[in-house]
Amino acid sequence: MYDELTEVDIRKMREEIDYRTRVLRPKLIEDVQTARAFGDLSENFEYKCAKQEKNRNDSRIRYLERMIRTARVISDGSAEDAVGLYDQVTVFNEKLEREMTFRIVTTVRADTAKGLVSKESPVGKALLGRRAGDRVHIRVSDALQYDMVVRSIEKGEDDGSASIRAY
After folding, report:
1. What is the residue-wise DSSP string for 48-110?
2. Could you tell me if 123 and 140 are in contact, meaning their C-beta atoms sit under 8 angstroms apart?
3. Each residue of 53-79: pLDDT tens digit?
4. pLDDT per position as a tens digit, 109-142
5. Which of 136, 37, 50, 52 has its CA nearest to residue 89?
6. Does the structure show a pLDDT above 50 at 24?
7. Given phi > 0 = left and psi -120 to 50 = alpha, else beta, which region is 68?
């Protein structure tokens, strides 16, 4: 699921790793040392918080490094008139009886609140490769299924504007 990344995904992850190791890690280590100097570690809340933040940063670095190491680089190979990666798609949701607009992105960039739908989600999988006018059946589960009609497709490219999600 998380192993299909674009070149831009990998570049953004490397930039985040660089920031976290060169800028954030030294600051967090200093915060831990400062809090440690406050005294008894068993009752030192500042020390516990500083240590937790440092550990969170180290964990995020390991996570990003593992993602890059196991990644399979993909690119959009869709036809000019078909839905592909980073395209903006306007659909009519027949169940809700309203138009909706999505942008299909890689899983690590998905944010449904911003209209960024993962290519691995039920909606993303169903829309990829479809053309304007196509009726698409979305199956989330046995209990939740609905149809959409693709109204328009605006070809897009990975401009790097969508950020990498936290875990």
Report:
1. HHHHHHHHHHHHHHHHHHHHHHH-EE------TTB--TT-EEEEEETTTTEEEEEEEE-GGG-
2. no
3. 999 999 999 999 999 999 999 987 888
4. 999 899 999 999 999 999 999 999 999 999 999 9
5. 136
6. yes
7. alpha
Q: Which residue has the tokens 């942008």?
A: 103
pTM: 0.82
Longest dimension (CA), the chain: 69
Q: 3-state class of 124 per DSSP?
A: helix
What is the β-pairing status of strands 116-118 and 135-139?
unpaired
Angle (nearest 5°) at CA 53 between 48 and 55: 95
Mean pLDDT for the chain overall: 91
Residue whose tokens read 């790793």: 17
Token pair of 108 as six digits: 């690590």
Pair 104, 87: CB distance under 8 Å: yes
Q: Which residues of 89-98 are buried (b: 16+ CB within 10 A; e: fewer)?
A: bebeeeeeee
